[in-house]
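S2.1 Query sequence (Aminopeptidase N)
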Amino acid sequence: MTRRRWGQRSGLVAGVLLWAGAASGQVVPALPPGQPPRAVTVPPAEPIGDSIYPHLGQKGLDVLHYDVTLYIDQPGTRGLRGVAVLTLTGTRPLNVVSVDLLGPTVQDVRWNGQPAVWQQDVAAAKLRVTLPAPLPAGQRAQLTVTYAGPAGTLVDPELGLDLGWVPVQDAAGRPVSSYTLSEPDGTRTFLPVNDHPSDPATFTVHVTVPPGVVVAASGVGGAAREVAGGREFTFEQRQPIPTYALAVQVGPLERVDGPAVPATGPEGGPVQRRDYFPPDTSDAVRAPYAQVGEMLRVLSGWFGPFPFPVYGAAVITPRVPALETATLLTMPVSSSSERVIVHEGAHQWFGDTVVLGDWADVWLNEGFATYAELLWLESRGDDPGRIAATWYDRLRAQPTRPLVATTEPQLFDASAYLRGALALHALRAAVGDAAFRTFLRGYVQDHSRRPVRTADLLASAQRTLGPVARTVLGVWVESPTLPPLPAWHRLP
Ligand code: TRP
Ligand code: ZN
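Output structure tokens follow.
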């Protein structure tokens, strides 16, 4: 079991909540009072089998698209109501569909529009549905879930911070805004999801908020239309992304559109620019975002085209780590530096597009993102050899490990970030810049929207660069001790 804890739920439920939706047919906000819930048990499905988070996801379930409608009556609280329509299929025949949901209470479930037989297992944080007939592999179906808050509470045990749907209050305790911060498994606090990066999906996000409140989310769009009681904002995330990479923010945000960055985006097209800032954001905090266009030029030169047609950041005030939410970085005021923005920018390729097959391989995200910091600083005139030596000194001062993690505390440790980055630096030092660039671009192209494991990276190195390159990388991946720092001479 996990050491994560979850807290306050509505007083309604303790332990396993068993409701049959079949009799209900209600939409938001609630079952009619007095209607007796009918107990149903749906057998658990086999989880994906992640080596760090074995309970997450369902094996064989492939969610293609999430159409999400959220009603946020009071930003800055956990209150929310939602309707999620999952377009899904199976990579093998399915009798049961089981999605992760931690916190909100399910009110109604439909399978292809018809009332379904379902169970919300609160203890297991799963919503399970018995299918009226087995779903053949490859056949599409629609699962519609109507639910209401409070959003779940989930604390990252290593970082000690709130994950998922996080409310923000002002100094006087008044509710102000809410943001999502979901790596690795916080999205299930506000949305029923197959909550594992190996099942990336597209998203449509509609959020209705009171007058004056602004919504920012991953994807293109963001226009508002007047609806009863406020405004509805809509975003389309048309490239599949992992569930944790979905950003949603609601609050008194200022949207700032910038000039598109030409020729850095998908198929050589432009990347549209937009950022969101909370009230009274200083010029010093805004300043580094003016470099984003230049960052896209430098990084796309190494990694290939930026994977999304739009990019920017949404800034938040709490002192938490930055997160690489797709197309819309979640950037704390305290992290708004060029270096962090470049790091999160590189994750748009490594993590958000080349997705993890298992959390044990998270160095494949963090190593590349950290190495991008060096590539950026180098483009500004810094010496790569000096940066690598600084990383090496930091690593030497502490225990290290092979790069594939075996425990949760290892996921975001110095080995994942710095040793991961040095593995790439060692490869570059051995093969030269031209071959390294070809390798990076090939790895991204071959694995976009496909789950990768460390073995896939090694195989890619062997294929593109040959057995010596595979060995150089392999030593950094596998050695129980810290390999020697390669001497740095730039090779063309
Ligand atoms: N992926 C983040 C980064 O390095 C770090 C991170 C891990 C994180 N877990 C998180 C950030 C949870 C915020 C919340 O860019
Ligand atoms: Zn990172």
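The longest strand covers residues 230-241. The chain has nine helices and 22 strands.
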